[in-house]
Design brief:
Helices cover 74% and strands 3% of the residues. With 144 residues, the protein is mainly alpha-helical. The chain has one domain (3-143). A two-stranded antiparallel sheet has the order 1-2.
């Protein structure tokens, strides 16, 4: 898609949002490096990387929703809402099943894979709820 279809405000806001996502990812990577250097293991290396990456995506997603920035031709991000909504429903079901079966969220003083899935679910759920709140707010404004 060509950048000419966005006005100047959209381009500036998109740049700020991506910068905030990059800065948050960089800060999380540095914090994780300091924790590892100090001998603190809070999750497996695989889960650490996934959680750091997903948290940066969550920051970008929520900020873009709150600031009214769109990345495609549609102003309402239905694909994003659908993707995060389906992921949060599926992960909520999996996490609830795991919790009911007595799965450990923390193993050996570190976040287990089941605990990491619960954190992922929280990020997906937060993004979905913000998106739905934004859509409902816009609809109320359009009715008035």
């Amino acid at each position: 898609m060509n950048a000419n279809c966005f006005d100047e405000r959209q381009l500036q806001a998109r740049g700020q949002i991506f910068f905030h996502g990059f800065a948050s990812a960089l800060a999380l990577i540095l914090c994780n490096a300091f924790l590892q250097e100090s001998g603190v293991v809070w999750a497996s290396p695989f889960n650490q990387n996934l959680l750091i990456g997903m948290l940066a995506v969550t920051v970008v997603s929520i900020e873009s929703l709150v600031r009214g920035v769109y990345f495609g031709r549609q102003k309402t991000p239905w694909r994003q809402i659908g993707l995060f909504g389906v992921a949060s429903v599926v992960l909520t079901g999996i996490c609830l099943r795991n919790l009911l079966q007595g799965a450990a969220l923390v193993e050996n003083s570190a976040l287990s894979a089941k605990g990491a899935a619960l954190v992922f679910d929280g990020m997906f759920l937060a993004t979905t709820l913000v998106a739905l709140a934004q859509v409902m707010t816009e609809r109320r404004k359009n009715r008035a």
